[in-house]
Amino acid sequence: MPLETLPVLSLEAPAGQFSQDIGDSFRTFGFAMVKDHGIDSDLIDRAWKLTAEFFALPREEKHRYHLEGMAGARGYTPFGTEIAKDAKAHDLKEFWHVGRDLPEGHPLADSQPNNIWPDAPTGFRETMEELFAAFDETGAKILSRIAVYLGLEENWFDGPIEDGNSVMRLLHYPPLGDDAEEGAIRAGAHEDINLITLLLGAEEAGLQLKTRAGEWLDVSPPDGALAINVGDMLQRLTNHYLPSTTHRVLNPSGERAKHSRYSMPFFLHLRSDYRFETLPQCISAENPDRYPESITADDYLKQRLREIGLLK
Fold first, then answer.
1. Are the beta carbons of 143 and 195 closer than 8 angstroms?
2. Is pLDDT larger for residue 215 or for residue 308?
3. Is 183 left (phi over 0), alpha (psi -120 to 50) or beta?
4. Nearest-angstrom CA–CA distance, 279 and 282
């Protein structure tokens, strides 16, 4: 039976069943909701607390960690910087990026810079490094289930994501003011660039996905569960067999407009030097190869970052 609503899946389900269920959800919606993901709830609570404390710092203090010429890859990106592709108004958000630290002399070091860390709040670095590692582990497990759905070996993605350019974003949507650009919303309609995104914080209302019928559907996972979606890199790799779905974050109304909204997406990326080759099983007479020309993951990322205003 075709799916009519976005299911809530358990990562503790038998591996074969989870593979089938998340694949079917991705095929239908480009999204899934996943509980029992294994990321420690106390760690998540600490991260929420420290995220709120960081964004409550004075503007001048936060701007100390904004690195020019880095395309927002690490550290702080100020409010009103990012803009959805083809949008007319900038998003109403500010964020902090945590990535993967690589040892000195690593061949990918030029394309994957190491982290910077703020002086405050206390414990920020230790907590965010631990959370990044937890997201990384859970994301790899989910990718192994997707690999099986695609008819690949369970460990097929291990090499392509080893030392990958994944990013954990700490997002703050401030209370709505009267000085926003006309038509601006918290996150304009967009698709993600990476393989898959694992999102904490979607239980706060506002996240919507666009169905294939062109209707907007609320994404409201249970408390603590993840919203997971296909990114453009996985869409490209699978020749659109798994679709990257347009989504947005709407502005709240009434009393909720006076409150901040926080979320934590983990953008799981390929290695920077990974070269795209369309999966053969995703090519057919009905679905010919849309991407016969190869491109590295880093070149693709830079192309997309220019489109959203993070790279000049």
1. yes
2. 215
3. left
4. 5
Q: Among positive and negative, which fits the CA dihedral 162, 38, 226, 254?
A: negative
Cα atoms found within 13 Å of the Cα of residue 304, Cβ hemisphere only: 17
Decide: pTM greater than 0.85.
yes
**Contact predicate 158/140, CB 8 Å:** yes
- The burial class, CB within 10 Å (0-12 / 13-18 / 19+), for 122 is exposed
Tens-digit pLDDT profile for residues 51-96:
999 999 999 999 999 988 777 889 999 998 888 887 888 889 999 9
Please tell me the number of Cα atoms within 13 Å of 191 on its side-chain side.
21
Cα-Cα-Cα-Cα dihedral sign, residues 86, 166, 27, 91: negative
Pairing between β-strand 8-10 and β-strand 31-35 as defined by DSSP bridges: parallel
pLDDT in tens, 186-237: 888 999 999 999 999 977 888 999 999 999 999 999 999 999 999 999 999 9
